[in-house]
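Sequence design from tokenized structure. All designs in this work follow the same two-part layout: the structure record, then the generated sequence. An example of the structure record is given first.
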């Protein structure tokens, strides 16, 4: 009876007998992965966090528009790539990456300060307009109240002949408008009270990880796979030679 053959078992047995080769290959590639980690150039990421305040500025609240504007404005002074994202409501994060830590911090701080100043200018304009609105409404209310006081004084002296129907109609309209102006004043004063100025919160710089553990594991895995392929090919060559010699 012909000898029964188990090719898969034959390959597994051969690889198991050569398991030390797999271990050595994995260790060598892990060492190579570690060496690669330590020879990589360190990259730094500098991040500036800016509180935009409650001033409304549609152009300076969209990341892609901010990136385009300040990259053009600082062209020649800033050679990196500016990344902008909305971290939280009213918080803009400006960041960039470079191998030179000092240069990177200087560049990101420069852009962040410019962005903060632009937001602050916008805030001052809006705050001033809101203050002017409050002042104008107060003056209207004071004018109406003075008119009503004057009419009351005349009425108390029974001097109705000094007022004509036009004056009375005007006073009635002003009296009816008074609650509306008082409501507008309350809303404007509330908005003014809630206004918050922009603030450059912080600028932080972190070094990128050399990924030592990840590179060692990847190297070990690559070494195992490569040696496994070599052992399978080795076994295949041995089987081919044996078969050729038996012909």
């Amino acid at each position: 009876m012909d000898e029964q053959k188990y090719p898969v078992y034959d390959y597994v047995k051969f690889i198991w007998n050569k398991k030390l080769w797999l271990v050595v290959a994995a260790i060598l590639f892990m060492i190579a992965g570690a060496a690669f980690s330590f020879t990589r150039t360190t990259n730094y990421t500098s991040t500036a966090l800016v509180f935009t305040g409650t001033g409304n500025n549609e152009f300076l609240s969209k990341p892609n528009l901010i990136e385009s504007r300040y990259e053009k404005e600082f062209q020649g002074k800033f050679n990196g790539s500016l990344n902008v994202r909305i971290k939280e409501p009213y918080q803009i994060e400006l960041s960039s990456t470079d191998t030179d830590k000092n240069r990177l911090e200087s560049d990101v701080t420069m852009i962040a300060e410019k962005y903060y100043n632009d937001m602050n200018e916008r805030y001052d304009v809006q705050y001033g307009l809101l203050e002017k609105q409050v002042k104008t409404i107060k003056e209207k209310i004071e004018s109406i109240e003075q008119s009503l006081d004057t009419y009351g004084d005349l009425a108390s002296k029974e001097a109705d002949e000094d007022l004509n129907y036009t004056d009375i109609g005007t006073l009635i309209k002003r009296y009816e408008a008074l609650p509306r102006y008082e409501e507008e004043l309350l809303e404007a004063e509330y908005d003014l009270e809630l206004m918050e100025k922009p603030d450059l919160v912080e600028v932080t710089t972190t070094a990128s990880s050399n990924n030592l553990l990840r590179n060692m594991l990847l190297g070990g895995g690559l070494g195992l796979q490569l040696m496994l392929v070599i052992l399978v090919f080795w076994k295949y060559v041995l089987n081919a030679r044996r078969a050729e010699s038996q012909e």
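The chain has six helices and four strands. We note this feature because it recurs in several other targets discussed in the main text.
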